[in-house]
Design brief:
The chain has 208 residues and is mainly α. Strands 1-2 form a two-stranded antiparallel sheet. The protein has a two-stranded antiparallel sheet with strand order 3-6. It has a two-stranded antiparallel sheet with strand order 4-5. Helix 2 packs antiparallel against helix 3 and helix 3 crosses helix 4. The longest helix is centred in the N-terminal third of the chain and has 13 residues.
Amino acid sequence: MTIDWVALDRGATILDGTAGLIVLDAEGRTLYERDPDATLPAASVIKIPILMSVYADAADGRLSLDERVAVGQHLPGTGVLGRVSGVTDLTVRDHATLMTIVSDNTSTNRLMERLGTERIAERMREWGCIRTELRRKMFDFEAANRGFDNVATPRELAALLLRLVRGELVDRATSDAVLAVLEGTQDDGLIRRYLPARTRVAHKTGSL
């Protein structure tokens, strides 16, 4: 695949906003970057380190992916649980899948409660995330109004994905399991839109 870096830079320049971008190869070499250390609102992309924390803790024996967790209060926004009120509980694995592939906010909050935000923050620090922070649950507008927003930098998110590609999330099997979940992301309107059909893409979208 040939990438037109000039076109990428031009597209970032004309955006009505701030673009932070970084492109790495599988060896970790930087192929392109534009303000990669900018701290930006993370939206649902913050669900990547949550997903990684779930699978890392499961691999370490801290929890079971088969453990059932109540659905609890349904949240608006992206996802499906708010529209299927008959579902009362799901496995940790199913919550993680819904959080990722359809960006379900209800499942996201249940996983944050199960692991604890400090445990997820501990994992993120362990993985070198200094500026990327999980500060609040989904749809916690009170916290958001107090300035507690979830934020991330392109460089740190790319480093998390590179860890998966290299098989360094606990081990190769755990890394591949997370990549498989990310490949199931249903949003085809962004990066997949510009790629050939059947291209394998492990990704997570987010928007505000």
